[in-house]
């Protein structure tokens, strides 16, 4: 196993321990806790590490920061990834709240999803944010016509389209994600490190939407 693979596995395990500790702390003070995760390939090892940890999973709600508007059977579905890699082992007892409906478009489904997420344990205990090479996080893309709304609305969710991605999306707004008690950013590779460093050095959120979360404490988890 290469040094970078080893480092990423250690990172995943360290992040899993930190997230589990945060959830345990909140569950000691409240009935339920909410974990918001991001999709893609980067968090898979983290999901698998977290799924094995001891926790009162029956009292944990899990949802996504954003989702592609595709069927769960699609390889592009973040829901599919979460069910396969996180909602297993001990974490199989968690309650998962998806961000898609049977509607043809996210615009048609967003009202029902707003009702679905309204009863979750807000503010979220933990949000895990990823970041793209364009500085986007969740589905807040620099080239999206909905970016301004995503950064300013007080609604929980919004439908998103962007020229840089093939599918329409549903995303939590910056306002709702920013309310979380704890924010972790999970990145790997030299390219992502450079993008994050550039984002830290500036303040134009429309250029790099990850900057919208840099006005509060962030825990960065990065490995080569």
From TrEMBL:
It catalyses: 6-phospho-D-glucono-1,5-lactone + H2O = 6-phospho-D-gluconate + H(+). GO terms for biological process: carbohydrate metabolic process; pentose-phosphate shunt. Pathway: Carbohydrate degradation; pentose phosphate pathway; D-ribulose 5-phosphate from D-glucose 6-phosphate (oxidative stage): step 2/3. InterPro entries: 6-phosphogluconolactonase_DevB, 6PGL, Glc/Gal-6P_isomerase, NagB/RpiA_transferase-like. Its EC number is 3.1.1.31. The keyword Hydrolase applies. It is an enzyme of class 3 (hydrolase). Keywords: Hydrolase. Belongs to the glucosamine/galactosamine-6-phosphate isomerase family. 6-phosphogluconolactonase subfamily. Hydrolysis of 6-phosphogluconolactone to 6-phosphogluconate. This is 6-phosphogluconolactonase. It comes from Halotalea alkalilenta. The lineage of its organism: Bacteria, Pseudomonadati, Pseudomonadota, Gammaproteobacteria, Oceanospirillales. The gene is pgl.
């Amino acid at each position: 196993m290469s040094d970078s693979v080893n480092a990423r596995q250690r990172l995943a395990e360290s992040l899993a321990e930190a997230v589990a500790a945060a959830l345990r702390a909140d569950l000691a003070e409240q009935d339920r806790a909410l974990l918001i995760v991001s999709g893609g390939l980067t968090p898979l090892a983290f999901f698998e590490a977290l799924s094995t940890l001891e926790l009162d999973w029956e009292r944990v709600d899990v949802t996504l920061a954003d989702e592609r508007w595709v069927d769960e059977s699609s390889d592009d579905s973040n829901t599919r990834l979460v069910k396969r890699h996180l909602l297993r082992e001990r974490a199989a007892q968690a309650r998962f709240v998806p961000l898609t409906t049977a509607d043809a478009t996210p615009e048609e489904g967003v009202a029902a999803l707003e009702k679905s997420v309204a009863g979750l344990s807000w503010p979220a205990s933990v949000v895990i944010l990823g970041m793209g090479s364009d500085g986007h996080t969740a589905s807040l893309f620099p080239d999206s016509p909905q970016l301004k709304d995503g950064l300013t609305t007080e609604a929980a969710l919004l439908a998103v389209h962007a020229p840089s991605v093939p599918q329409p999306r549903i995303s939590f707004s910056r306002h709702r994600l920013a309310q979380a008690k704890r924010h972790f950013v999970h990145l790997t590779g030299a390219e992502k490190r450079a993008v994050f460093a550039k984002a830290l050095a500036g303040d134009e959120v429309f250029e790099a939407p990850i900057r919208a979360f840099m006005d509060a404490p962030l825990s960065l988890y990065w490995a080569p």
